[in-house]
Design a protein that fits this description.
The complex is a heterodimer. Chain A is an all-beta fold. Chain A has 1 helix and 43 strands. The radius of gyration of chain A is 30 Å and the shape is elongated. The termini of chain A are far apart. Chain B is an all-beta fold. In chain B, β3 and β4 form a beta hairpin. Classes of the chains: A mainly beta, B mainly beta. The interface between A and B is large, with 61 and 50 residues.
């Protein structure tokens, strides 16, 4: 048959395939050819999967899985276009967001999988769908992608920074498979952020809820509640007009682990001797009116407040340090604070967080510890409080007597365990640990390092592994650019004692000294 | 520093502030540290102005 050699326009209407999660995509394809009529047949490849995942707001990963449905080995070119809601290809710096690839020599019934990463500021909002075009010689197929899904965040970090819109705007970033772009909280942004606390709700029906509570540089307590979609702001109260020491943190919050209610406690700004501390509860619909905790020793100015939830009930334990060195403990029973206990009257330097509290996971009992010079004073709550005496961190009595600046207790949150690790940093940069078994202190205090980068800030922390019985301790060694760590297991610390711990690679910023 | 209640990667994450105001998060995979990410280069060393939290999603 004679073929017109002039330009021949062949209108080829293909059967268009879509993955199972989206509607059909029905635009006809116009092929413009010269010289001869070209017969186009549908691609032998079937799209098994084309879902995509949002990584924050700016990055999207499309995973494409193809199957060769033909009886012979086949190949195909792949073109993936990012389309907006108008069906236009999204531009990034005036360049169309299109990616190309090739699947070669796929046997009959064989599959080919490839991930395509698209990145552009605000892409999550701009993207409507991906268009997937497969072609090879005389075959072609056009598909739309499956739906986009968000991976539920695994973690987030809330923080103060001076970048972007400045320190009046609290920042946060979610972590799913990697850290999201920076997000800012824009309301009311009238005071600089100073201290930040944050937590996800542990209650089983509310695990997508989170809370950020911060203290501003004008001493207000601001709360931002996240419901899984948006943030709700509330200014809860004012702690004082001028903080005596910027470093102190006279507020904290915890979630009740069963109900999901959040309980926040902060220092009261008045001089009322019966109103030493304020507490408010997020009860699922709003913040309750302020209620008060009375320190029986009269009017006290709290410098530190730390709360710790019982992971298996709605109880919360609290430890607070006053400006004159008293250490008080209370227990929240789900509706009120009670079971007051005066643990110590002699915290050496109240400018540091030298007290901590923890729930034993298995027993549901509480252990509290506070620094007293070179000693640690401890107490235990088993329905009522009882003192456990004190012990010295310094084993050689002839050595200079240090004062402990920082005390941290970390409970082992694993079924059947009542272990708690105590970490303490003295004012000469010496870091000690000692472990509580649930019924007694195990071994003697162990010196982990005798020269950390600073004792002015808490340049150490540690936690138990989520499974098993290992504990990992991090610290910033003096003049060491890398972050150092040691691991405890039932056979002891590795490396042991004062031996230098392993270190990370240099942090990506390349600067030294951890705080 | 926080331990992942789900027991999956990252098993532990540690957030650090260095003397140059860099806030960095490092992940622990159960054997080694990796995936260091600079969250910001403009936080503060004057007080604890950050907190890291894992979710309890099942």
């Amino acid at each position: 048959m004679k073929v017109n050699r002039d330009v021949v326009i062949v209108l080829a209407v293909f059967t268009l395939f879509v993955s199972s999660t989206t509607a059909w995509y029905l635009n006809p394809i116009v092929e413009e050819k010269t010289r001869e009529i070209v017969s186009i047949i549908e691609t032998p490849f079937v799209v098994l999967q084309s879902d995509y995942v949002y990584l924050g707001n700016n990055k999207i990963v499309l995973t494409l899985e193809l199957e060769n449905s033909a009886m012979t080995t086949q190949s195909t070119n792949i073109e993936v276009q990012a389309l907006d809601s108008s069906g236009e290809i999204i531009l990034d710096d005036d360049v169309e967001m299109i990616q190309n690839s090739t699947a070669l020599d796929i046997p009959p019934g064989g599959t080919y999988t490839e991930s395509f990463t698209f990145e552009k500021t605000g892409l999550r909002t701009e993207l409507n769908v991906f268009l997937i075009i497969l072609w090879w010689d005389t075959t072609q197929g056009v598909f739309t992608s499956g739906g986009g899904t968000s991976i539920a965040p695994k973690a987030f970090i809330a923080y103060r920074s001076s970048d972007f819109s400045g320190p009046k705007f609290p920042k946060y970033r979610f972590y799913d498979l990697e850290w999201s772009a920076v997000q800012q909280l824009n309301e009311p942004a009238d005071q600089e952020v100073r201290m930040v606390r944050s937590a996800w709700n542990p209650a089983s029906s509310m695990t997508d809820n989170a809370l950020i509570v911060l203290l501003t540089n004008q001493e207000y307590v601001d709360a931002y509640k996240y419901d899984g979609f948006s943030w709700n702001f509330a200014r809860l109260g004012r702690i004082w007009k001028n903080a005596p020491i910027d470093r102190v943190r006279p507020f904290d919050f915890e979630y009740e682990c069963l109900s999901g209610d959040a309980v926040i406690v902060y220092k009261d700004n008045s001089t009322d001797p019966s109103r030493d501390l304020v507490y408010r509860v997020w009860d699922g619909s709003g913040w309750t009116d302020p209620a008060y905790i009375d320190d029986p020793a009269g009017r006290k100015e709290y410098y530190w407040v730390t709360l710790e939830s019982d992971p298996l009930t709605d109880e919360i334990a609290m430890i607070g340090v006053t400006s004159d060195g008293n250490v008080n403990c209370w227990v929240w029973d789900g509706s009120s604070w009670g079971h007051h206990y005066l643990l110590s009257t002699s915290v050496t330097d109240v400018g540091y967080e030298a007290a901590s509290i923890a729930w034993e996971y298995n027993s549901g009992e509480v252990i509290a510890a506070a620094a007293d010079g070179q000693h640690i004073d401890a107490a235990r709550y088993t329905g009522s409080w009882s003192g456990m005496g004190s012990f010295s961190l310094v084993l050689n009595p002839n050595r200079r007597t240090p004062d402990v600046n920082w005390v941290v207790l970390k409970p082992h949150r694993v079924s059947g365990s009542d272990r708690v690790m105590l970490m303490a940093l003295d004012d000469r940069g010496k870091l000690y640990t000692r472990q509580w078994s649930g019924s007694s202190w195990l071994s003697l205090p162990e010196l982990m390092d005798d020269d950390l980068q600073t004792e002015q800030s808490r340049c150490f922390d540690g936690d138990w592994m989520p499974t098993g019985t290992s504990f990992i301790l991090f610290a910033g060694q003096f003049n060491t650019q890398q972050l150092s760590y040691k691991v405890w297991s039932p056979s002891g610390w590795n490396p042991s004692g004062q031996a230098a711990g392993a270190t990370t690679a240099a942090p990506p910023t390349g600067r030294s000294g951890y705080r | 520093m926080r331990s992942n209640p789900k027991g999956e990667y990252p098993e532990v994450m540690v957030a650090t502030v260095d003397s140059s105001d860099n806030l960095v998060v490092t992940a622990w995979d159960g054997a080694t540290l990796q995936d260091q990410t600079v969250i910001t280069t403009e936080t503060t060393t004057l007080y604890e102005a950050y907190e890291l939290a894992f979710t309890y999603n099942p």
